[in-house]
Amino acid sequence: MSGIAHSTITLQGRFARELQEMAIPWQAEDAPEPQLLVLNDALAVELGLDPEYLRSPGGVRFLTGNHVPEGATPVAQAYSGHQFGWYSPRLGDGRALLLGEVDSDGGLRDLHLKGSGRTPFARNGDGQAVVGPMLREYLLSESMHALGIPTTRSLAVVATGRQVQRESLLPGAVLARVAGSHLRVGSFQYARNTNNLDLLRRLADHAIARHHPSAAEEPNPYLALLEGVIAVQARLLAQWMLVGFVHGVMNTDNMTISGETIDYGPCAFMEGFDPGAVYSSIDESGRYAYRNQPVVAEWNLARFAESLAVLIHDDQDKAVELAVQALNGFRTQYSAAWFSGMKAKMGLPDLDDEQASPLVDDLLKLVQEAPADYTSFFRNLGKAARGDAGPARGMVLDLPAFDEWLARWQALQPDADAMDRVNPLYIPRNHLVEEALAAATTGDMEPARQLLTAVTAPFDERPGRERYAEPAPDDFGPYRTFCGT
Length: 485
What we know:
The protein has helices spanning 14-18, 41-46, 51-55, 57-63, 131-146, 185-193, 197-211, 221-243, 293-312, 316-345, 353-369, 374-385, 390-393, 399-410, 416-422, 430-441, 446-455; strands spanning 4-5, 8-9, 23-25, 35-39, 75-77, 81-83, 86-88, 96-104, 107-114, 153-165, 169-179, 245-246, 268-269. It folds into two domains: 4-179, no CATH class; 183-423, no CATH class. By secondary structure, it is of the alpha+beta class. The chain starts with a strand and ends in a 30-residue tail after the last helix.
């Protein structure tokens, strides 16, 4: 394992070396007065990094990209993407840099910066990020990790000491992010668009080696890669839906090959159960609404299949046939993962599907009609499994229908303890996230620290944390999020 001895950090440059056509060597802009706002000690240790060093002046400069370890080659990565359905051939890291890969006990993992300054992909952007959105990604990604959902991780947020012009002047920040890799569907779209078959093949081989190594042993490794990505994305989307997570900007450049959640921009956790929930201020048509997420994922995977088709088979018609067969597996795999998860949320993981289906359908109809707070309702249902149906019953409107449902469900002897292990008590409630970000923007990190403490142990009820389990007050109003660019 490559680790750290005080200030000695070893970063590999595998992406930069193997895929030079997609990697522009670049340096982060200087942060005039860097100040560490939050550091993920546990993740640092997991990566073989010394938290004490990362808190030092040299370590903070490393986290902003201003102190590059010897031998490291920071690069801006190239990728394309369909943004709200429209294809952009050249997107790339406009305000981000891949510092390199850390070889830890968990395998090769990217260390990546957001907000580190303009790159050749910046177009009209200033390359900067501000404290609020970077802290949002830290809070949301670490919450998702605690919920057991594959995600990029957040190592640190560092204030740069630079004021950034948005609607007003705001304090600048850099996020240090960790991922299995930052390979996206858009990466493959970019490689395919170059018409460089050798580049596309090397990219696919790189993805197989890092994320889907079993594909290399298959007769058709590139078809197996497609099937592997379909499988991990089907599971990921089911997990999003089961916790009420709305990503908000499911462009193809925001879908990973690893199956990790990436880019927490205009995202939010749904409160009142609403299949049409949209929180992003830029999603005016509802393309990325809660209920549309599995459909959009399937659409994105079709774009991935188009990019890979030339590797899957020399004959175009045969390549399309094989790709379509693989894509047909998405709905089956997604539905199986989601339905299994819903049975677990009801405390009936081993129930026969035929019995479970009407229970699930009838319950979600009652929750939607209310609309009940999605997270609180399932947590209260655990209390009903212990004999206290009052809290859950108080959240629905059609009481006779709920009582009838409750009798059917309780007769099956749901496991309350198992329910509490999968139904979170604490999620990043939107009003609490906004409260934390507003305070941090003025220099007060305490609300963010308190919220982080709650959401990184989401299943364990703790005295004094009651407000972190409560829905937003009525006067919080309709919630809108912004991407922060």
